[in-house]
Design brief:
The protein is an alpha/beta fold. Helices cover 38% and strands 14% of the residues. The strands form four sheets. Strands 1-2-3-4-5-7-9-12 form an eight-stranded parallel β-barrel, surrounded by four helices. A two-stranded parallel sheet has the order 6-8. A two-stranded antiparallel sheet has the order 10-11. The radius of gyration is 21 Å and the shape is globular. The mean pLDDT is 95.
Length: 472
């Protein structure tokens, strides 16, 4: 075996979200979530109620097929699996006083299967699926009452699963609330009508709730590790012009602020200046400040898909199709079929930046390539020859190995959508990320049968050799 920079005990696996694969959207007492009125994905207006064209209502039927899917993950050699718990399975409306036992029992069964296969669970507490009732009745995280409802939810999870789950993430891509307030923060007020004060007050409420979750975990599960989860997107200046350099810094700080607060326990000066200049005055109690300061995270987890460029002169540069969160296209990079620019070195940059900045263990919990896969038959076996996905992941994992050699403390790596699921950004099944092909199409047709792609065996070998096969 060749040498590998990946340390012994490095956690290898994949990641999913409940609303994108479970289905069974009203089964066993589950309530509606915001995802049930988002049939077309992140950037489209919500509907008044659930519609028949929402692929997430069935997803890939993980709710009934979890044992089969976890067995496939084990066959690849996963040592960890990141999944989320659907808040509205546990508290169907979100503001009840007692949890739904049938919902809790489902995740007991999922954990049973993971334990049977020796796979470490990595649980996201809230992953873009705020109960719809909380959005419609309270305007989501704009309302401070959400902190109490979230606390009750977290206590139910830690009481039930605290002895079984070591790694917890409080909110998925918490910084995305700035750009997608309904999906990320359950904020029912339309984005174009939402005041800056209400938006940033909602951000504050989520940050306080995240610190409170860390506090609860230390009370109920002292051996647990709690991390924040942020969307990472390195920002490069479009030119060497100092104005472009500062524009890039300003854009990047919008994301970095969330890690700064989770790790350091207080608002950074640049963030407070930005609020002042926008006329925002937050309502922050002394208790809030104490929670943030005393209950910082144990590690920082993040997603990484692409980088962007920034310029002070917006007449320069081209807006990238995949750049949902600002910036302009990098003229030196290629892009995916959905316009996401492919930048493996950007992942090494992010890892070094985060480690230098925070000195907390890091965890890559999302990375992958969405592509249109074609199911073919070779020697009587149905598969997908996804060499493009293998090349993408190889390049990114090479960058990860370099970052570890640089001295970055990295806990693990979970690819996004390790089994095909419904895309969050477009609500399509044709935008596939997985090592496992699921026979379901954008029109809802298909058998839901699972097939191993070429990348399945490739990733299994990466895991078996702890990354040594990447340089073989």
């Amino acid at each position: 075996m060749t040498t590998t920079p990946f340390p012994e005990g490095f956690l290898w696996g994949g990641a999913t979200a409940a609303n994108q694969l479970e289905g069974a959207y009203l089964e066993d007492g589950k309530g509606l979530s915001i995802q049930d009125v988002m049939p077309e994905g992140i950037m489209t207006p919500r509907t008044e109620g659930p519609t028949d064209d929402n692929l997430k209502q069935v997803g890939i039927d993980f709710y009934h097929r979890y044992a089969e899917d976890i067995a496939l993950f084990a066959e690849m050699g996963f040592t960890t699996y990141r999944f989320s718990i659907a808040w509205s399975r546990i508290f169907p409306k979100g503001d009840e006083t007692e949890p739904n036992e049938a919902g809790l029992a489902f995740y007991d069964r999922v954990l049973d299967e993971l334990e049977r296969h020796g796979i470490e669970p990595l649980v996201t507490i809230s992953h873009y699926e705020t109960p719809l009732h909380l959005a419609e009745t309270y305007d989501g995280w704009v309302n401070r009452d959400l902190i109490g409802f979230y606390e009750r939810y977290v206590r139910a999870l830690l009481t039930r699963y605290g002895a079984r789950v070591k790694y917890w993430l409080t909110f998925n891509e918490i910084n995305s609330v700035i750009h997608a307030p309904f999906m990320s923060g359950g904020i029912n007020t339309p984005k174009d009508q939402l005041s800056k004060t209400d938006l940033y007050q909602a951000v504050h409420h989520e940050l306080v709730a995240s610190a409170l979750a860390t506090k609860i975990a230390r009370e109920l599960a002292p051996d647990a590790q709690v991390g924040c989860m942020v969307l990472s997107m390195p920002v490069y200046p479009l030119t060497p012009n100092p104005d472009d350099v500062f524009a890039a810094l300003t854009t990047e700080r919008v994301n970095l602020a969330f890690g700064d607060i989770h790790v350091r326990g207080e608002y950074p000066g640049y963030y407070l200046r930005s609020l002042r200049e926008q006329g925002v005055e937050l309502q922050i109690s002394d208790e809030d400040r104490a929670l943030l300061k005393e209950h910082t995270v144990d590690f920082v987890s993040f997603s990484y898909y692409s980088s962007i460029c920034e310029t002070a002169d917006r007449s320069q540069g081209e807006q990238g199709q995949g750049n949902l969160f600002g910036g302009v296209k990098n003229p030196t990079l290629k892009e995916s079929e959905w316009g996401w620019q492919i930048d493996p070195i950007g992942l090494r940059i992010v890892l070094n930046q985060f480690w230098d900045r925070w000195q907390k263990p890091l965890f890559i919990v999302e990375n992958g390539l969405g592509a249109k896969d074609e199911l073919v038959e070779i020697d009587g076996v149905k598969t997908v020859v996804d060499d493009y996905r293998i090349a993408y992941l190889q390049a990114h994992l090479d960058a990860v190995g370099e970052a570890i050699e640089d001295g970055v403390d990295l806990l693990g790596y979970t690819t996004w959508g390790c089994i095909d699921l419904v895309s969050a950004s477009t609500a399509q099944l044709s935008k596939r990320y997985g090592f496992i092909y699921v026979d379901r199409n954008d029109d809802g047709s298909g058998t839901l049968e699972r097939f191993k792609k070429k990348s399945f065996d490739w990733y299994a070998e990466v895991i078996r050799t702890n990354g040594a096969s990447l340089t073989a």
